Amino acid sequence: MSDAFVTAIANVVSAQTDLSPAEVEELIETPPSSEMGDYAVPCFALARKWRKPPAAIAAELAAKIAPSEYLAKVENAGPYLNFFVNKRCLAEETLKRVATEGARYGTSNVGAGKTVVIDFSHPNIAKPFGIHHLRSTVIGNALRNVYRALGYHVVGINHLGDWGTQFGKLLAAWQRWGTGELTEDISVATLLQLYVRIHDEIENDPAVEEEARAWFRRLEQGDPEARRMWEVCRNVSLKEFNRVYEMLGITFESVAGESFYQDKIHDTLQRLQDKGLTTVSEGATIVDLKPWGMPPFIARRRDDASLYATRDLAAAEYRWSTYHFDKMLYVVDVAQSLHFQQLFKVLELMGYEWHARCAHVVFGRMLGLSTREGKVIFLEDVLNHSIELARKMVEEKNPDLPNKDEVAQQVGIGAVIFADLKRGRIKDYVFDWEEVLNPFGDTGPYLQYTHARFCSILRKAAQPVVMGGVDYARLSEAETVALIKAIAAFPRAVQQAARDYEPSIVSRALLDIADKANKFYEKHQVIGVEETTFHARLLLVDCTRQVLANGLRLLGIAAPEEM
Ligand code: ARG
Question: Which 8-state DSSP code applies to residue 261?
Fold first, then answer.
């Protein structure tokens, strides 16, 4: 639910135009400075509709809309219609709502009865959980939290890369160089070495490729030995992945990797053929996508080995029939854009109206963390390093903190997560240790410190926070109002994050709250001021720490009370 002011503006503007309140709400912006107003409605869209200059429309509307209890003043400024809210009402509405809703502030039930499937994280087994899978993991998890907060039924799926010709290579490698039976004592690092070794071997001697193909054929045909070895690889990898997920506090509703669709591919291919969509080209079965300017979707290879793309097709069908989703999001690297365009087009050609419910949530690359040899960086190592650095920081700032280990863990991991979620997901970003952990930068630790700082004010005040009898007119200084406005904007940010599949909207809302909170506290004392003002400010402090905690939780970051 949006705040009362956005709703009030949406209603008054809607009454004077042919826009619905929801359409007006989409347009509402926050002006760059509060002298210009608290909220603004740009009139460009109306100008196009009505074929009049936007400034004329703004003037016309400003003249028609009378001030009300909530909206103290309406003004036009160029193409904008600016609203000034009643500050006392703003404080009262906002703080009462935060104090009443507590941990639920920012949540709603707009998604009740709707299902969102989110395909995220999806590392590849028999390889370490690399840093390149961090982005999908944290963006997907934040979206999962955001949708849940809005009342959606969310199915988070870990579509593990646990099938494919690479396992033929791995098994062939074990047969060549392994000793005895493959057992779960083996480490993922060793599996990776084996894989790299056979890869090099194939480069030198293409005949080895045939060996690998034969193994994959055995695996696909259900040969018990091949199957057993594959299971060992899968279990060993999962154990390692689960360690990382535990550190990050991430769980899934379903861990159904590519292998899960193995027995479903046959029917999927049959349907493709029955619908007359396939042709045979050089022995492979393809769906021609030339009319849409795309290369063919290869459904089956000449050697009959199954393919990533076909498994995705089977997965989409399976998920539709299992979950009847309203949306299915694939949180995957921008490098796979073409794959998903092809996939969605094939679903459309198959006549599935739900193809339009599928979206590829793309993200750019994370740079700055690579070894000289271009080797994989283990995510676990990055997290541990960050925890180490955070421990030093905590040690310096608060040597007497009783639960230093726990806090170091929360701060270290929070720093890595926030670095990833702070800007628009499409952008590439450079990971820089100094920047990521800087407690004064736009970072996870900064948000956590601000939260802890406000918790400590409450501790020091050592008095209960009361809502009854608070004089909201006391919360009228510029810095105070700015903070309250930032808090009021939070629920809308959560909704927009879901609408745009963009966790950074929540991140930015939190940074704004933290900035305003620190500015407020620099200017205004809480403890030791006159009683009535004290109670009003104390309530604001409590609401600030609440909203910061709520937002951090949505991003998958812990909010320690002391650090
Ligand atoms: N495991 C794949 C990779 O690492 C990503 C899987 C994405 N999900 C999907 N349904 N294709 O590249």
Answer: G
